[in-house]
Amino acid sequence: MTLGGLLALGYTVVVSYKRASTSVNNGNGSLSLENIDSLGETFMVLRGTDRKTVGEEALRMGINGPWITKSYLELILERKGVPRLNSPPPLFNTSTSNQERPIVTPRPIRVTPNLVTHLEDLSQPWTRSPTKSKMEPILATWHFISSDPLHADSSVVEFSHEATTDPVSFRDTIKLAPMPDSYDLDRGLLLAVQAIQALLENKGLPVIVGIGGPSGSGKTSLAHKMANIVGCEVVSLESYYKSEQVKDFKYDDFSSLDLSLLSKNIGDIRKGRRTKVPIFDLETGARTGFKELEVSEDCGVIIFEGVYALHPDIRKSLDFWIAVVGGVHSHLISRVQRDKSRVGSFLSQNDIMMTVFPMFQQYIEPHLVHAHLKIRNDFDPVLSPESSLFVLKSNKQVACEDILKILDPEKLFSSAQNFIDIYLRIPGIPTNGQLTESDCIRVRICEGRFALLIREPIREGNFIIQPKVDFDISISTVAGLLNLGYQAVAYIEASAFIYQDGKILIEVDHLQNAPSPYLQIKGVNKEAVAAAGSMLKLDGSYTTKSYLQIILERLPAMERSSSGINPQQAARLQELVEFIQSQGSSSASESSPCREVSPIEGIIEDMQSRIKRLERWHTINTVLWTFLMSALVGYSLYQRRHQ
Q1: Under DSSP, is residue 497 helix (H, G, I), strand (E, B) or coil?
Q2: CB neighbours (10 Å) of residue 96?
Q3: Residue bearing the bigger pLDDT, 492 or 167
Q4: Nearest-5° angle of CA 119, CA 120, CA 124?
Q5: CB under 8 Å to 86, separation ≥6 — which residues?
Q6: What is the pLDDT of residue 249?
Q7: SS3 track for 93-151
């Protein structure tokens, strides 16, 4: 809408100013000199997408402040003596004169929600149907309520700098009032930052935040977005896993967390002391060390994120509770409903939730309704092309040294891993006699973890476009899918070498039943992926077939049925399915201290030993090649100098 259209609707111009700007961009950020005619001053502005990068750039330039956080509008209104919008507007004499007409503060559009002071008044349906509300508050305001039971029914305290003269006693006697509505991710991010600012202003340092919700809901993404704005550290509760619980595939079990260490860390942070946070290696399933963490005056905020971040034993030590639902978690439930309806069966969302996410319904969801801020993540990375990877796949042979040549040697990282893909399908889904990837839910087992793919990748020319994120699930979720009637219809085992430099990832996959390896080039930039393929001379050799298609095409014609299982692997697949069902049922219920040893554990242990051998060989190979390339470059420079 144009300015003229807004004026025609009744809007009036209350403040205007002219800005003249000169900018320089160095890649990490931009530096602007902006002259504001109404103020008669020139301001220097540093901009960037990352808070830490902007801060480092300012230090590099020798600029230490003081920084101005007010907008040009606020500065102009202050210069003219007009109070802030959250203050009552002054009364002016309406008599006309030749003097300059004062600017009246525009009245903000504000919808004040009905505040909830009792947690039992909060409703729960938002956790099951995270869809956008048609009537969301246009502007929400955080308030504090008394944490003293004797004053729990007292009036709500709106936050302000002058809220108390005794900060210590005030901190212990007030808490945030929960927002009665749920919000989308963008609005929730804004409200989360505003809440942290309110807590810092009124309760002081430190502010400890907890973000909880089911796997795949977007907790980690929200935590890092908040950290980028606030400039704080994010600690994942996965760092507190106990090794013995992880080896039993109990990632979603509350008992898998080292609560005593977590409590000590939070206590140290609360007292302003340095503390040692554990580092957990998910690939090896073991704690590998510790890192020091300290709350400073520059930023006294710490964010803990994880499935159980809002559990009563954890949230009681936190200042700000955020619950996030939706994302891929909701998409899987919709996919199961769709598959069941295709075979003439209907399951309610609640039935699916109880079976596929038993731990969520019993031990996670009841705690989310207590959150100060409830967020529905309507963004689904499974469906969004913005969160996709562009992939080129070829079975043309490429030497390791050729791969290393096209990657940035300073940022090069390589690894090796083994994985097993299991394809689950509901019997009775109409087919043309062939097993297709779109009819299946793929579960990948890698380093003892389970990841889910519930969308068939998009194929565009030579490119395969697939989700950028891996949706980690627990073994109880896989067991739940099997209990709902899904059957394991295909099985692929492979090992992979992975090379990456931050921009491009190159994966060399050795499929168990394929004569030659397949090379995949992955990246978020389509042109960069295509250029890497051209440098490796792969043009003309690309295929968009999935590994499932490739394996099925190698089977005899009579075995290419909707069952899709290679007879030679059927027994091993059956062992794996039985193991998943036994472990999944024990994870959903109280686990026994004694556990039978399954034959599939031998498979897992064998995969882990093979990974270690691959990594050792790969490390030796990389070191030798790097040494050879360094020698060649050194010899070339020596020759040029003597010439």
Answers
A1: strand
A2: 7
A3: 492
A4: 95
A5: 108
A6: 57
A7: CCCCCCCCCCCCCCCCCCCCCCCCCCHHHCCCHHHCCCCCCCCCCCCCCCEEEECCHHH
- Residue 502 token pair: 């931050």
* 536: nearest Cα among 396, 390, 632, 414: 396
- The DSSP string of 440-474 is -EEEEEETTEEEEE-SPPEEETTEEEEESS-EEE-
In this prediction, residue 1 has a pLDDT band, given cuts at 50, 70 and 90, of: low
Round to whole Å and give the CA distance between 176 and 115.
11
The answer to whether 119 touches 178, Cβ cutoff 8 Å, is yes
Q: What phi and psi, each to the nearest 5 degrees, are found at residue 574?
A: -65, -40
CB 494, CB 502: distance < 8 Å: no
| pLDDT surpassing 60 at residue 403 | yes
Look up residue 297 and give its DSSP letter: S
- Residue 327's nearest CA partner among 481, 439, 184, 425 is 184
Structure tokens belonging to residue 163: 């809220």
pLDDT digits 0-9 by tens, 358-401: 778 778 888 999 999 999 887 665 556 556 789 999 999 999 99
Q: pLDDT at position 607, please?
A: 53
Cα(249)–Cα(419) distance, integer angstroms: 16
User: Are the C-beta atoms of residues 293 and 278 closer than 8 Å to each other?
Assistant: no
DSSP state of 241: B
Query: Per-residue pLDDT tens for 3-17?
Result: 777 777 888 888 888
Taking the alpha carbons of 26, 29, 33, 35 in that order, is the dihedral positive or negative? Answer: positive
| pLDDT exceeds 80 at position 555 | no
For residue 516, which of 480, 554, 468 has the smallest C-alpha distance? 554
Q: What is the dihedral of CA 550, 553, 555, 559, to 10 degrees?
A: 120
Taking the model in full, what pTM does it have? 0.68
CB atoms within 10 A of CB 207: 23
Q: Which amino acid is at 559?
A: E
**For residue 279, is pLDDT > 50?**
yes
d(CA 115, CA 178): 8
**CB count, 10 Å around CB of 116?**
16
Q: Which whole-number Å values give the CA distances from 60 to 28, 51, 234, 299, in the listed order?
A: 12, 14, 25, 20
Contact 147, 174 (CB under 8 A): yes
Distance CA 290, CA 270 (A): 19
Round to whole Å and give the CA distance between 438 and 428: 14
Residue ranges of the alpha helices (H) in 362-419?
365-368, 400-405
**CA-based max dimension of the chain:** 97
Q: Which two tokens stand for residue 205?
A: 């340092």
Lowest-confidence segment of 18-22, 85-89, 338-342 by average pLDDT: 85-89
Strand 373-377, strand 182-184: pairing:
parallel
Name the DSSP letter for residue 159: P
**Rounded CA Rg of the chain:** 29
Higher pLDDT, 266 or 101: 266
Cα–Cα distance list, 491 to 400, 569, 575 (Å): 28, 7, 12
Task: Assess contact for 390 and 525: CB atoms under 8 A.
Answer: yes
Nearest CA to 382 out of 436, 458, 315 is that of 458
* DSSP H helical ranges for 544-598: 547-553, 567-588
State how far the alpha carbon of 32 is from the alpha carbons of 67, 151, 228, 381, in Å. 14, 51, 21, 35
Q: Of the candidates 555, 431, 405, which has an alpha carbon nearest to the alpha carbon of residue 492?
A: 555
What is the C-alpha separation between 232 and 528, in angstroms, rounded? Answer: 32
Q: Give tens-digit pLDDT for 139-182.
A: 578 888 876 655 544 445 544 434 444 555 556 678 889 998 88
